[in-house]
Amino acid sequence: MTKYIIKRVIMALVTLFLITFLLFLLVRIMPGNPFPSERMSAEAIAKKRAEMGLDDPIFVQFGNYLKNVIAKGSFGKGSSLYNGAPISTVLPQCMANSFKIGGLSILIGVVVGLILGIAAALNRGRFWDTFCTVLSILGVCVPSYVFMIFLQYFLAYKVTIFPFYFDASRFLGSAIIPAVSLSLFSMSTVARFTRNEMVEVMDSDYVLLAESKGMYGTKLVTRHILRNALIPIVTVIAPLVVDLLTGALVVEKIYGINGLGKLMVDAISGEGIDYNYVLALGIIYSALYIGIMLILDITYGLLDPRIRLANRKES
Amino acid sequence: MPEISTVTNEDFVLDVSKDLTTDKNFASQGFWKGVLTRFRKNKRAMTGLVIILVIFVLAVFGPMLSNYGYKEIISIGSGQDVVAKSLSPRIPALHNLFSSSAYQDAFADRVFLFGTDSLGRDLWTRVWYGARISLLIAFVTILIDMLIGMSYGLISGYFGQALDGVMQRFVEISNSIPRLVIVGVLATFMPKGVWLVIVALLLTEWIGMSKIARAEMLKIKGQEYIMASKTLGAKNFRIIFSDVLPNTIGPVITQVMFSIPTAIFTEAFLSFVGVGIVLPQCSIGSLIEDGFNNITTLPYQILPPIIVLALLMLAFNFVGDGLREALAPRIEDM
Known about the structure:
Shape of chain B: flat
Low-confidence stretches of chain A: none
CATH superfamily of the largest domain in chain A: MetI-like
Radius of gyration of chain A: 24 Å
Low-confidence stretches of chain B: none
Helix content of chain A: over 70%
Radius of gyration of chain B: 28 Å
Largest sheet of chain A: none
Mean pLDDT of chain A: 76
CATH architecture of chain B: Orthogonal Bundle
Number of domains of chain B: 1
CATH class of chain B: Mainly Alpha
Number of domains of chain A: 2
Order of helices and strands of chain A: HHHHHHHHHHHHH
Oligomer: heterodimer
Strand content of chain B: under 5%
Number of strands of chain A: 0
CATH class of the largest domain in chain A: Mainly Alpha
Shape of chain A: flat
CATH topology of chain B: MetI-like fold
Order of helices and strands of chain B: HHEEHHHHHHHHH
Distance between the termini of chain A: 11 Å
Structural class of chain B: mainly alpha
CATH architecture of the largest domain in chain A: Orthogonal Bundle
């Protein structure tokens, strides 16, 4: 098992390194000018370039960049956003906002999704089952920001229960609309998967055996059905977690949340594109994604002995 | 005492009232014909198909049904004195039927099914024009992605070993770059617009297809008919593209059906964010953005594009599900 984990970690690090290099290369060598040239003279640009080390060979630049990121946790300065403040001073606040709202929405999505899925599986063909099916279709087909616009219109504008825009000082109140609308997709996915997995497990022979031994009710559900049904559900949740922690792009923009997604949008959709922000955010996103996938791989191996065995045989 | 039934001659007479000449249960049926029959029986999938067709027809002919162009600002008179800004949806004939007071403004006799936007453009025209752009982008990119992904997966799966290892590592790495990062990096050196959306979709959507094609190839590779083909001296190229490819088409088409809503959605959100479609052109996403900017004052503007988007996503998902079930029927469904 240790060997398997080490192998996975090394592979993840190599992938992250390659992606970082690729992103760096793309952002640096592609045509495009980080300085608004109309307002700066040629000498000023040349001076600035030398100062930022843009005339060094690309590998030297990359080495310096990596050294700064790893040793000092500094991603350089932004060129247009926040008046060129160092990125590392802007990032923590944005990350905190994104993670809080993302975490809240995952919590809502997984808990409600599990409950709905279990209710649907235990009442097959009845009201909760239909409800679960309809919800999962809606959740997959209606983009979260559309749902959010409706919530915002009715709950924050028509009836002013919640604030219309995000307000960090009233976190809980203003996090509800974005968190609920973001959770809809994960909720429906989790609900559908839980239902299907549980139905499959409930039809299996060992559940029949447990039942014929006289087991029933909550004990049967939690001990025999849910436990086996949960393993595949974990795989569905992991990519959703990444999406929610990072991809709440439009929702953040609409609701005015100062998060990673909004930062990315601001960095690419403004007049001047902020290269350093794009690069820093790209690296953070990729690192998160790879990290969560790594954790998933390892927990999955721990949860399901068959996967562990298959990997042992392979290596 | 119950009557004991005895076998009589009548039990052996052919019942002519039933049509026994053709054996329907076991009538031979081509694979695709079976798929078609199963697909047709699936009500959800057929509903999805009808929705797609209706939106398709409207996207093609909708703009022609109105008298206005998609970027035409509707006004009366030669100057820009009276512009049809922000009119709510209206059909005067219907309105007069139910209400005693007719419209009082200069456009009292004109029909605007979806109303007009804040600049005075007809939303009916714009919504269908936008749907056309969105659908076009989705179809073109997904078709190209299908070609790329399918070839990649088939080649990787067929040759296996070292080549497969390298190609799969590449897939793994590309797969761990989030789409948003790709868009961000692209935006640093590409002008914003349709092409940015297309390239971003091209770079991401092929991965899913390649995985499916590779899995199919691994399944088929060991079968006897491939061995027979090899024995007869077929070259690799021929085996991959003419022996195996036709047999992978089913799962790949299903994947296409699921990729198209993703593509439409991605386009919509990129345009919403402001790196997609450039004015005065429009797409579903940019229309939703326009609508959102005026949501507190003119909430009706956002409804048509949102409904079209949701219907498209819904319909393609239904059709995809139906296709998957029709292509690989499980025993309990039959």
